[in-house]
Design a protein that fits this description.
This protein is an alpha/beta fold and 229 residues long. It has helices spanning 44-51, 77-82, 99-109, 115-128, 144-156, 174-191, 202-207; strands at 4-15, 18-29, 33-38, 59-64, 67-68, 84-87, 162-166, 194-198, 211-216, 219-222, 225-228. Strands 6-7-8-3-9-10-11 form a seven-stranded mixed sheet. Strands 2-1-4-5 form a four-stranded antiparallel sheet, covered by helices on one side. Helix 6 links the parallel strand 7 (162-166) and strand 8 (194-198).
Length: 229
């Protein structure tokens, strides 16, 4: 039986007082891999930020992994984000500490206290992304692909139902982009994690086809149901 992990109904997406996307109706199911495409400035990042609680949902309804987006406030946002993974184009790693300590920082910030359990979880996610032997490395000692793998490992720490990825291959060469896409598809398939990935990279999409949401003229067009939604 399918499980809906992201649902928007009649949602209007705002950036400040500017209406960016209107009347968005959207369902994403458990384990789905969905692309989010569209020209710069058409609302991709605003949609992602609404889904992870950085921008408020003012109109319409929205539910992400069981959290009501209309009922979000600064106290509830951390709980929403414990159930989400967010992957950034520019990695946003802590440059003053090594791989292991980067991940430990996130666990502590999300309420973990047991040192042994934290160590086991860190080793587990590093294993999943192929960085098991890199825990001692500093971010500046790593390649772009390794840093992106670390960013994905960080997103996996709290076993999220959903990963929101904002241009995760944007700064990578084609071969490394290929490795990251294989990793993301593996995570979706083997762990049942839904992935919504914003991208401009149509070479990646042609190699790894999937359902596509396109932001255009203030609307979203869904390739699975090619009418304005």
């Amino acid at each position: 039986m399918s499980e809906t992990v992201i649902q928007l109904r009649g949602a209007n997406i705002y950036q400040g007082n500017s209406l960016i996307l209107q009347d968005v109706n959207l369902n994403i199911e458990k384990g789905e891999f969905v692309y989010l495409v569209g020209k710069t400035g058409t609302g991709k990042s605003s949609l992602l930020k609404t889904l992870y609680g950085e921008l408020p949902l003012k109109e319409g309804t929205g539910n992400v992994v069981g959290f009501d987006l209309r009922d979000m406030n600064w106290k509830k946002v951390p709980f929403l984000r414990r159930n989400l993974g967010v992957v950034f184009q520019d990695f946003q790693l802590l440059t003053d500490r090594n791989v292991y300590e980067n991940l430990k920082f996130v666990l502590k910030a999300t309420g973990w206290k047991d040192e042994k359990l934290m160590g086991e979880k860190i080793n587990d996610v590093l294993e999943k992304v192929g960085l098991r032997s890199k825990g001692f490395k500093m971010p500046f000692e790593m390649s772009g692909g390794e840093q992106q793998r670390l960013d994905i490992a960080r997103a996996l720490l709290n076993s999220p139902k959903v990963i929101l990825a904002d241009e995760p291959t944007g700064n990578l060469d084609p071969e490394t982009s290929d490795e990251i896409m294989q990793l993301l598809f593996y995570i979706a398939k083997d762990f049942g994690t839904s992935i919504l990935m914003a991208t401009h990279d149509f070479i990646v999409i042609s190699r790894y086809p999937g359902r596509m949401l396109k932001t255009e003229k203030g609307r979203i067009i869904d390739s699975a149901n090619p009418v304005v939604i």
